[in-house]
Amino acid sequence: PKYVYSWGAGKADGNGKMKPLLGGKGANLAEMSRIGLPVPAGFTVTTEVCTHYYANGRKYPADLQRQMELGIAKVEKVMGVKFGDAKGFPLLVAVRSGARDSMPGMMDTILNLGLNDETVVALETATGNARFAWDCYRRFVQMYGDVVLGVQKRAGEDHEPFEVVIEEAKAEFLGNAHAEDTDLSADHLKEVIARFKTLVKDRTGHDFPSNPWDQLQGAMSAVFGSWMNDRANVYRRKYGIPAEWGTAVNVQAMVFGNTGSESGSGVAFTRDPATGEKVFYGEFLMNAQGEDVVAGVRTPYPVADLKKQQPASLKELERIRGVLEKHFTDMQDFEFTIQDHKVFMLQTRNGKRTGVAAVRIACEMVKEKLIDWKTAVSRVPADQLEQVLAPIFDAKAVKAADKIATGLPAGPGAATGKIYFNADRAVEANEKGQKVLLVRVETSPEDLRGMIAAEGILTARGGVSSHAALVARQMGKVCVCGAAALHVDYDKRTLKVGKTTYKEGDFLSIDGTAGTVYAGEVPTAPSEVVQGLIQGNKKAQKSGTYQNFVQLMAWCKKATKMVVRTNADTPEQTAQAVAFGAVGIGLTRTEHMFFEGERIDAMREMILSDSTEAREAALAKLLPFQRKDFLGIFKALNGFPATIRFLDPPLHEFLPHTKEQQLDLAKKLGIKVEVIMNRVAELHEFNPMLGFRGCRLGICYPEITRMQARAVIEAAVEAKKKGIKAKPEIMIPLVGFAKELEIQVAAVHAEAKAVMKETKTRVSYSVGTMIEIPRGALTADEVAETAEFFSFGTNDLTQTTLGMSRDDSGSFLAPYAENEILPKNPFASIDQTGVGQLMEIAITKGRQTRPNIKLGICGEHGGDPDSVKFCHKLGLAYVSCSPYRVPVARLAAAQAAL
Ligand code: ADP
Ligand code: MG
Ligand code: MG
Predict the structure, then answer these.
(1) What is the pTM of this model?
(2) ipTM of the complex
(3) What is the CATH number of the domain that holds 320?
(4) What is the Cβ-side half-sphere exposure of residue 186, based on CA atoms within 13 angstroms?
């Protein structure tokens, strides 16, 4: 079998499509060579050799040595030099690892391999450049000693041993331990190398290998060995890369960026990876080799500066930039070296980019006819699309800002404002026109008003699925949660971080894309997309960001099969989601409407009532509020359907829990505080998640269901009179038994009938259920007798299937991920094998009874790209997610359908 694939002089055995066999780096080196780009000759030892190596007790296939000798011979021929030549210019090689995808944790590259005490002299003679020759040798011994021979920092040592030798030499020869490497003369370097070799002998007990073939063997074994090192194993597990893939080894002729001031080394992107702008972007250093550019020891210059120093090289790089884009039809991230004014290409790959850049590049490449629209849709990572909607910090201001803490990036974007620790005070401040940040240890439904008033939310505790994070995402608010360095004192209204104390009203800024917290006011602006779509800002609509976004969404519409709805509780949220392309509401949580203003009082009165009559009287007060809310939502939807879920949470959530609040409420309602205390005690539950909630409330208090049905139907009637088409879909939560649904549906129909009779108006509506309990899924054929639609409530379905409470899972989810029990957070991305299987059962059984049953999903998972793709596969009609996730879900749904 063929183990060695050569390239060079405009030819190659392999090509860019052979990444599994040649690794990403090797495949693209072959491809670049084929298309005539200046690539130093070399060869790839395939990933199959890696697999063989591990399958056979770390031994190589018999024919490998012969093939490698042929490979070296070809390189020698192309380059006109000989490996190990002690007379003429010796061939030196780079040994470079290369898996399918670039993988941190793999072995570092070894440069200048082939040097020893004789060949270095030959190199010096051939080039007439002593400093250059000994600099190469110094680099080689150091890299090889470190990476292959393992001469590294030991426990208790503060610095790398080779670095210690260099610093001592600099102090001794130059009088400054931190002088630049380039200040060391050839003679200095000779002495450093001698000391390096002594170090190697002391540490390993062996002499530094001088035979180039031994060196090559050693380097290759080190690359293959690194495939199974701890760092690589951890990385592979995290990203699900199978060990069988193996890595390839690339052996390539060296070109030299360190021959002097006429040479250099750099990295570049064919477009700006941060903004996507079509400009040449990158940096370089003169008289530098390898990692000097990214190591941060010397500060590199922008590529444009080459114009002054080597205009011809810049022109050549510009030409290459064009060739690369045309050939690979994607933005490339590449590495180059200039040797005495000649440019060489050392690597290229598709460049990583921000969400903003991804959208811009995809759209512009379609315009440039480099790619078609389907490719454009498939290229933008769905998850990153949210970045295009997020408010933004001024980049310069961030650099200057004082970062005081980090937490989890829970709601992307930038926000700045005066800090408040209490929802009411935040609202008050906001009403006075202040920009506010709500800072809490963690948030609860009572903080909702404060969260609405705030630009951003910052919590000291809680994960990315905490209440704060969930609500923030739904509202498109910036949020950083779980910033453990924050010490919030509610009584003193202060926030302590380290030694600094911030008082209520002080400015802080948070970056919910990065999860960082800054002191003071860092300037921000809403994204142009939001300004254009939601605020109708004409200027923003002319911006490239806006137009590209709209274009991308139009393509998504063309491709998609499954549509996207939104989870929204207010007309504002609904209107936003519709602007983002939602075609209906998949979930309105009616209880969120009960927390605001006077409604919470009526709600509490209802809960405290001790008779049906008293409850009905209190409910009657809530009715007009609900009706108004629904009407507002119907208006915002303008003919799109709205799935309205009836009351779901346990009632105790609505009652005040501190003595002070209870006394307040008692006074307000004119009842004894003991009544409230007793009721709170009565409603106390050990497992509220599995307790008195969902349709269990409606079964015990049918008057609640009836009031809500009345509000929905009356609103629909009113809408009809105003010429607005309303399509309510009433959803009964937490159904596990067909009978539960039958009882609730009967109550809904009875009330609807009554309303239509009273108003002498007919409106249409449907009633269905949420599938969110395993029993409901398993008996879906029975449930479908009455349910006209199923909506998968995957939040609760995940909790009940896994037997894990989302709110309590923070303490063990991290070790569960580390131990690979859970590949992903199941509350963020659907557990496809477990929860997914229940969904499949429910779909199959539901369709047995009702072949055309409408199917959707309304859990938080509806905005997760992987889950969206899974829902497409299951054949759901729609997914539903928070407004700011709508574009993400639309993109994921389109990608699934391509
Ligand atoms: P990584 O995968 O970490 O980027 P590379 O194999 O690309 O590692 O090597 C790192 C650096 O070494 C390159 O960016 C380049 O500067 C230098 N390098 C690699 N191969 C050669 C070569 N043939 N000639 C000169 N420099 C090289
Ligand atoms: Mg590289
Ligand atoms: Mg639920």
Answers:
(1) 0.84
(2) 0.96
(3) 3.30.470.20
(4) 12
